[in-house]
Amino acid sequence: MAEPRLALAGCGTVGAVHAERLVADGAQIVAICDPDAEALSRMARALPQRPQLFRSEQDLLAAGCADAIVLCTPHARHADQIAAALEAGVHVLCEKPFVTNHALGQALVQKAREKNLALFVSYTRRARGHARFLQAAVGKIGPVRFVSILRSQPWLQTHGRTWRMHESEGGGFLRDAGASMLDLTLSLIPEPLSVASAQLYKAGTAEVDVCASVQLRFRSDARAELTLLGDATETLERIQVFGENGTAGWHQREGMPAELYVRESGCSIEVPDPATYRIPTPDKAFVAALRSGRRFDSETAPDLYDAVTALPTIALVERLYREGLWR
């Protein structure tokens, strides 16, 4: 495929981020859709070339104007939209989580394989330099014995009047921002889980969790603890990795220089530049895969953003919601 024709479903804040990345990569966005006429018009004005406008993804897919679609819609709608796109022969890049049910995710991955279509999931954190560095650091300090993660942000303040507050739309902080932290944890300790537990906290009139405390134990007896605060007043992220042969960490807060390091046992501290570890974003990788004309019907060595790689996190989030203790 020389130059794929892209469509974008969902013209809100997240959709705008994807559009900016795609345009920066020289991608051609030929169609956009959103039930909100104002959001649709705003996105159309922001693009370098005016796209076709649709009020629903069904109409967009029926028009046959796109080779691929980027889904930036409420979580609970993803599964039906992915299925419709695959049935129409359209490649998919979906915002995370691409589904809220593991079994359904498996079925969609299989359907994409059968139709030789790309089904990618936008876990942007996988591309970030600090995450890539910490994964590499495990090779120096491992095996990992303990991972501690604190993630806070004013999520409730930002999204308190949006679909993210509604269970029927697949809302919830653990399923949203928390999933990225769980995905990173599973990459740092790539072992089967033996124990997973969580305390989930609501706030005010929210139908969904706003904060969560998660405890994980793996087959090797390695452990992880995650504190996820969606009602904080500032965005802060702190990750500490403790291995048998050293430690590594990342600390970032608003308005302050970020800190990233690794210290092997008996060695001096190493402070790298995270920029040197960055890799292409999901948007860039998705477009590059389509431009290459490669096949997508094999599970051998899947792409970093292939939906099959997101299934373990989907299963874990589903388990934590099912078995977690609600406060």
Automatic annotation (TrEMBL):
Any one Gene Ontology MF annotation carried by this entry is: nucleotide binding
Q: A single Pfam family, by name?
A: GFO_IDH_MocA_C3
- Gene3D superfamilies assigned: Dihydrodipicolinate Reductase, domain 2, NAD(P)-binding Rossmann-like Domain
Q: Which residues form the Gfo/Idh/MocA-like oxidoreductase N-terminal domain?
A: 5-123
Annotated GFO/IDH/MocA-like oxidoreductase domain ranges read 139-248
Q: Per its UniProt entry, which superkingdom is the organism in?
A: Bacteria
Alphabetized InterPro entries for the sequence: Gfo/Idh/MocA-like_OxRdtase_N, Gfo/Idh/MocA_Oxidoreductases, GFO_IDH_MocA-like_dom, NAD(P)-bd_dom_sf
Stated name of the protein: Putative dehydrogenase
Q: Which organism is it from?
A: Armatimonas rosea
